[in-house]
Amino acid sequence: LNHDLGSLADPAYYNQPIELGNLSTEILLDALRSMLRIRYAEEAVADLYLAGEAKCPCHLGIGQEAVAVGLSAHLRNSDRIFGGHRSHSHYLALGASMDKMMAEILGKATGASQGMGGSMHLFAPEVGFQGSVPIVGATIPIAAGAGLAAKMDGRGDVAIGYFGDGACEEGVMHETLNMAAVMNLPVIFVAENNLYSSHLDIGLRQPANSVARFAEANRITTRVVDGNDLVAVHQAAGDLIEAARAGKGPGFLEAVTFRWRGHVGPNEDIDVGVQRAPEILVAWKKRDPVARLWQAILDDRKIDPKELPDMEVAVRKEIQDSVEAARLAPYPPESALLDFVYAPAGGMA
Amino acid sequence: MTRLAYCDGIREAFEYCMDKDEKVFAIGQGLWSPWYVGRSMDNLDKRYGVERVIDTPVSEQATTGIAVGAALLGYRPIVIHPRMDFMILATDQIVNQAAKWRHMLGGQVSPSMVIRGIVNRGGEQGAQHSQALHSWYAHIPGLRVVMPATAADARDLLIGAIQSDDPVLYIDDRWCYEHEEDVAPAQDVDLAAIRPALRREGTDITLVGSSYSTLQAIEAADKLASEGISCDVVDMRVLNPVEPEQVLKSVRKTGRLLALDGGWRTCGFGGELIALAAENVHPQDWRFAPQRITLPDAPAPTSRPLEEAYYTTSETIIKRIKTMVCG
Prior knowledge:
Chain A has 349 residues and is of the alpha/beta class. Chain A has 12 helices and 8 strands.
């Protein structure tokens, strides 16, 4: 049992352009586009926050983009994906609507949850994103239940439950790992281990820093990867998902990463984070999942160097258009306050 | 009409719904045991298979969360908590998740599921094997809470709960399990259309109860009828969303309200009914200050004489009614 991450948790390592392996240039460019879309969208959200336009709690995952993007490449719309408080990347990596996310963050009726949820309650079932909530660990059993539904459906769909290292300190994660193993559920537990829960370093919270040890204790197949390496995530997630689709039961992916901003809001948070010194953040920014992929593509694949800046411009335009549309959109009507509590009258099977 | 006992009514509801809808399944502790939930689920595992009647590890929260997840993806699970005391461990999934997903996701999705919590008390079982926590859960918007008193309702409210598009907490009480009555064949039930039931009709006082306290109210009313005191008995079988109109109408007629509540006094459902009546019945219509009989505000004891003092008896109820009606 390997309890410690070793160099995976040390930003002095893994900061060179990544190995691209045999992934096609098309897949790599799609992944880069998706990662840029997430990063620039979250930067735009940070700006909305600083401008006072966005008020709901926004937990930014800048620096963690490779995890959701590498994994989502293997998913189909009938899979069922659940997130937590920091789930913009999980939602966007599935190709969900930028317009609806920005509108939701501004509390508008055109939002992903009709303006009733905000940043922490995203929903895009058309691409498999079935919901996210900020109660830490709460969607872990819900994802397992969606996996049970997939098993009963018998069509080879899988469930994905995203959570962080902090959620591994909740009892419900341990209950769920046990039950998913006993019930042989097609669910992949994805621990984005960014080494922090709110302000606390994992070393102040757990006796060891690799959370995959909990899955191994439940005889669940685990993979531990550099979560800032798109290709490493892609390969590990692909293996686990393929096994779950084939009826071989749950998998646990620990993706080691780091968030560049604070627990909540736009700031880098170097003052409130215990043991989160400025030099650590600087070091982790050198393990940038976007830059490492970008440089690797330029070094390795024969593409027109102009193609990447063009891609960037298109991504930024989509985000700017979405923010503008969200600003102009209406708020939910006051009737929404009570209308959504129960199913409409006569709501019966 | 056929004769039906309360606990068999529960089993009939499972059979009716599981025969009719393949998306219905049951999950919880003790479902493969012959004694965990009385005879209310006898042989369901054999009839429907262990894939649809699932016994679980001792993990209330994960089990309930798994049911929420399956419900979000189109299934209609019934989670069984054989003792409500242990259901407290699943409260995040019930209160934060099942009850709130519809509202916080803008009405686009809802976990259509039943959480069955069983009240199992008496017999010197003590503080953590005795609780009736309906008032807690009835406080939560988005969570329907129902408590059957009679055999027909044990069956029909469960059918309605399973068929509802909302999450429903269905609370049955083992002290009611042997209640019997003649019932018509089972049919579909629209839970949202269910209103309080008038179980006895009288003019002197309004007795209001839920589940076992309704049976106690009926017993008191029947005894007092021979003594010339006539009682309205209103069965509040749906606690949330509460529909007080039947109670208000009755109190406007009788001028007296006695709320019977099998839970504690402070912030309890009995107090809620009195508040609703106080707000809505004109001061001139009252003939006596509204009263309630609840458990003492103390955990359930184990020692026999303490337990006898703890639970409400029909003598206590009758005495209070006589005080209110005869002075």
